[in-house]
Amino acid sequence: MQHYNEVRLHSALGYVTPADKLHGREQEIFRARDRKLEEARARRQAARAAQATVA
Q1: The model scores a pTM over 0.90
Q2: Half-sphere exposure of residue 4: CA atoms within 13 angstroms, side-chain side
């Protein structure tokens, strides 16, 4: 039961654990996800731009 509530990510909860949702941490988790996605997007764009100037 501990795994289900504290480890397993639930799709119906936005891929957070029930414990995170219960303790109100989901918005913090969503913001961190968005920040990481934006950083990855910027790295990909920079890599593509560098590749385009080489080619």
Answers
A1: no
A2: 1
